[in-house]
Design brief:
Elements (H helix, E strand, L loop, with lengths): L1 H18 L6 H18 L5 H19 L1 H16 L4 H18 L6
Length: 112
């Protein structure tokens, strides 16, 4: 059962990404931002995570509102992928800078 659900979620993600391959680059920006945010999240102290999570949820809502549910889905999946990736301490500072730059480029606000 779990394998079937995992396969269908992966297939859905693949189909959604394939259908959006002709957009204006927003999908890739959302994917890169999500991965950077997920990786940065793993670098944060536990005490800072609730505020960061609220920021990410607000970003998700903004992306969903402006770009639609497919791109918001890509963003959310990318956060999970980034959070599951291995990150060294040396990467944490650079990841935070990158996420901040992409957020600014996409015109996304947030609580931080």
């Amino acid at each position: 059962m779990t394998r079937t659900m995992t396969f269908s979620m992966c297939l859905s993600a693949l189909l959604a990404t394939s259908a959006m391959s002709h957009d204006d680059g927003t999908t890739e920006k959302a994917r890169h931002l999500g991965i950077a945010i997920g990786k940065t999240y793993t670098c944060m102290p536990e005490a800072d995570r609730p505020v960061a999570r609220a920021d990410f949820e607000e970003m998700f809502d903004m992306i969903h509102h402006t770009d639609g549910n497919e791109i918001a889905f890509v963003f959310a999946v990318a956060i999970g992928y980034g959070a599951a990736s291995d990150v060294t301490e040396a990467e944490c500072t650079e990841l935070l800078k990158h996420a901040t730059a992409v957020k600014a480029e996409m015109g996304l606000g947030g609580t931080k």
